[in-house]
Design a protein that fits this description.
By secondary structure, this protein is of the alpha+beta class. It contains 14 helices and 15 strands.
Length: about 475
Amino acid sequence: MRRLKGEDNSFLAWESDVQPQYTIKAVVLDPSQGREPVTRATVRAAIPALVEHVEPLQWQLLMPRLGFGRPWWIARSEIDLDYHVKHATVAAPGGDRELAAVIGDILEADTDRRRPPWQLWYVDGLAGGRVAFVLKVHHAIADGMASLRLLEAIYSTDPEAPLRQSRPGPPTDEQRPALRAWLPMVLRHQGTAALNFPRIITRSVRVAGIMRRRQKAGKPGYAAAFSAPGTRFNAPLTTDRKFAYHTVDMATIKHVGKAFGVTVNDVFLAVCSGALRDFLDRHGELPVETLTAVVPVSMRPPGAETGWGNHVARWNVVLATDIADPVERLRAIADATTTAREVQAERDALLQHDWMEYWPLFWFYSRALPLVSERMTRRPTFSLIASNMRGPQRRLYWAGAPIEKLISTGPVVFPMGLNFTGWSYEDQMTICTLVCGDHVSDPWEIADGLPRALAELAALAPALPESVEKAV
């Protein structure tokens, strides 16, 4: 049994029928190059052994008795294959748009909290005989870094590696503990939280002082909440989801970053900003003021073994959508992320993470107060979510079949009804656009602007010395 951390539990607490908190990790592969057949039947047959070896695929939520205490993960090695392994066929001609439509439908599909919170969809009908595996997994299980670990556990970097085999002997499932064992565990956790609470308050006061001193010194801070005007994406959500993506060249992203002295993440945000600005401008909806973004960043120590669950900070940055010039927009975004990095270094970086252990209080601060403020100001907390993740750096395989593309998206969270998610894989980055279908009927109107925005920056980038260009 594993008690959910406060940050993991927040994704369950935020979840509703119109706001499911699942992520997608989809791969496209070529079965013709596999050592073994990659069919719906062979994939289904391989899943039980995979579940035995990949720990979080066994996890099922154990909700607290009488609503007292935090949920737990409990291991269940036997799964219902009819529920967890699904099948879909894309429409002809089986390209990116048709696959994206299926992924959008998968994001709408109902899920059952009484089962381990994941499903794997085998999607056929893709052009060239290719297939896609679309893994839908609850965000409470994994953030970006943990999702990378999950992918590396499911797939292999060795084309000769065999598929997992079931372990000998009967599986061992965890059982709900008896009340006499469970109640003392809960009381110990509650007691520890109570003892730590004064230190949380002290740390919060210290951080408030740091922020006040920074403000008095005239230094910029995070993008302010409720500073951005509302757009169509900030309306109430429905169950409808629309999804699109484009794959762009990582070498071009790195070239632009080197040429302008900014990071890959800065270029990613500028590309998203440019595509969004173009979409709003075409529809006569571009605000005079800049939009803002919540940008998740990993808080796991460099080089540390990646655990499961979530461990992220959230930067609040301007997207400079009010700036027409692409280079000036990129520089403004780079200034904003530099400020965010400085603020994170100065303040208690783990404070928000630790506050989530006190969920009722954190909910009041993070959800209840913003809802009141949104009604008073008629502005969203922030405009959208934008997340960029460095994915696998080596080619992945399933039964020897090479994985050619990695597609990933996180959920939308009201009032941020637009999510940009970028994952790199080998020499490319796939940038995904997820929206509520009631806000945007065709997300390709936004996504098609992504490669155009990158090409525009690349065309304006100064040439690099040959030695620097080779390093990129």
